[in-house]
């Protein structure tokens, strides 16, 4: 997994596929302290992941405060050679005061068996 440092934070590029549509989110924070993977609502809408009237809204709590999110399944999510199918993501506004596309959380790292070697970053 290629990790780059930006402003003291680890970032990765995340590939997403939903149906026949794919995209790359180049500015995703790698966060081993986040239980879940959260992506910006407006960005994933570009590949057909939309809020639906019957979606359940939940709260996630973190250092940045409280975020209201909706959980959605994505067909394929990956970083470099690590990928998994039918993965549950959370989507929200992610207005934290700086520009990034989302947070790649511990759920993805655990499911893919990721090994983080900062000596190779």
What does this entry look like structurally?
By secondary structure, this protein is mainly beta. It has one domain (4-120): Cathepsin D, subunit A, domain 1. Helices cover 9% and strands 50% of the residues. It has two helices and eight strands, in the order ββββαββββα. It has a six-stranded mixed barrel with strand order 2-3-8-4-7-6. A hairpin with a 2-residue loop joins β1 (4-6) and β2. The chain is globular, with a radius of gyration of 14 Å. The protein starts with a strand and ends in a 9-residue tail after the last helix. The mean pLDDT is 91.
Secondary structure elements and pairings:
Elements: E1 4-6, E2 9-18, E3 21-30, E4 38-40, H1 41-44, E5 57-62, E6 65-79, E7 82-92, E8 102-104, H2 106-112
Parallel strand pairs: 3-8, 4-7
Antiparallel strand pairs: 1-2, 2-3, 2-6, 4-8, 5-6, 6-7
Rg on CA atoms, Å: 14 Å
The number of distinct helices, counting runs of at least 4 residues, comes to 2
Global geometry: globular
Alpha-beta content class: mainly beta
Distance between the termini: 8 Å
CATH topology: Cathepsin D, subunit A, domain 1
What's the average pLDDT?
91
Order of helices and strands: EEEEHEEEEH
Helix content: under 10%
Indicate the CATH architecture.
Answer: Beta Barrel
CATH H-level superfamily:
Acid Proteases
Give the count of structural domains: 1
> What share of residues are in beta strands?
over 45%
How many β-strands, per DSSP? 8
Q: Please outline the major beta sheet.
A: 6 strands, mixed, barrel
Strand order of the largest sheet: 2-3-8-4-7-6
């Amino acid at each position: 997994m290629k990790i780059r440092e930006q402003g003291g934070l680890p970032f990765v590029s995340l590939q997403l596929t939903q149906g026949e549509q794919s995209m790359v989110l180049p500015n995703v924070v790698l966060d081993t302290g986040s239980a879940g993977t959260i992506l910006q609502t407006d960005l994933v809408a570009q590949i057909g992941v939309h809020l639906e009237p019957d979606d359940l809204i939940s709260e996630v709590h973190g250092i940045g405060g409280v975020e209201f999110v909706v959980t959605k399944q994505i067909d394929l999510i990956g970083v470099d050679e690590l990928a998994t199918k039918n993965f549950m993501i959370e989507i929200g506004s992610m207005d934290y005061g700086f520009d990034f596309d989302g947070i790649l959380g511990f759920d993805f790292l655990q499911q893919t068996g990721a090994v983080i070697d900062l000596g190779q970053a």
